[in-house]
Design goal:
Strand content: 35-45%
Number of helices: 0
Largest sheet: 4 strands, antiparallel
Shape: globular
Strand order of the largest sheet: 3-4-5-6
Structural class: mainly beta
Number of strands: 20
Length: 260
């Protein structure tokens, strides 16, 4: 959440730095925050910048995905009217999750509440509306992804499919020992990180008959049966992955950092 080079959120392509999200976000994007995007904008969980080094409340900063500049909208909060506002006070450095569904123009963000309950706030992204259009409470959310008008949520050690108002639809992905991160690949597969086996699970046909393939040496860096040096030929990962995804040609990107 702090970078003297101001690259709190860096933008990269083909191994090269392309820039950073513009605006005063040094110290504004709290640790354990989250970022998502659609074809036009990125959405970043932040406090709200009101100008003059003044920040407050909890919000979501919208930036242009091509120019990295703030993208204001009618009724938006803060400088340049570029923020969705969750609330006007209180801490924002708790665990946050954010996901956008391009097919429905809906943005979902969690706001942690004491006692293990997450309130999920729903915004409309196109046209952008400053006020939430819906909200619901759901306990113990670890991570979530919106796709095709549904929510896939990790909670209570399981990965399940939920409606857009938080109702469990009795569809789940079995066989993941300790799911902690979930994403959607550009190849229309769910990506689920198993923090017990240090593997990425790629799930096809996730709505009907899930088929899973894995990436990563089983057990990762902490496997008891690593065979030196032959095991080094495999992808051996540490625990506590912080993010993952793929590009349009199937390259896989994994991140670790503050959490490891």
């Amino acid at each position: 959440n702090w970078d003297e080079a101001e690259r709190t959120v860096g933008v990269y392509k083909d191994n090269d730095l392309k820039g950073q999200l513009w605006g005063y976000i040094k110290g504004q994007a709290a640790n354990w925050g989250d970022i998502t995007g659609d074809d036009t904008y990125t959405y970043l969980t932040t406090t709200i910048d009101y100008g003059g080094w003044t920040t407050g409340g909890c919000g979501i900063l919208r930036n242009n995905i091509s120019t990295f500049t703030k993208a204001g909208f009618a009724g938006g909060a803060g400088t340049d009217n570029a923020y969705f506002s969750l609330r006007v006070d209180g801490l924002c450095n708790l665990y946050r999750n954010i996901t956008v569904d391009k097919s429905t123009n809906r943005l979902y963000v969690t706001d942690s509440i004491n006692g293990g309950t997450n309130k999920v706030i729903v915004f409309q992204t196109s046209p952008a509306l400053a006020s939430p259009i819906d909200s619901f409470a759901l306990t113990n959310i670890v991570d979530m992804i919106a796709v095709g008008g549904k929510l896939w949520i990790i909670r209570n050690g399981t990965v399940g499919r939920y409606s857009t108002n938080g109702t469990y639809e009795n569809v789940s992905i079995s066989g993941i020992l300790k799911p902690t991160k979930i994403a959607m690949s550009r190849q229309n597969e769910l990506m689920i990180w198993d923090d017990s086996l240090c593997q990425v699970n790629f799930v096809r046909n996730y709505n009907t008959s899930p088929r899973i393939r894995t990436l990563g040496y089983k057990g990762g860096m902490y496997a008891s049966n690593k065979l030196y040096p032959s095991y080094s030929k495999f992808n051996v990962f540490p625990a506590r992955l912080t993010g993952m995804g793929t590009d349009s040609i199937g390259k896989i990107y994994l991140t670790w950092g503050y959490a490891f």
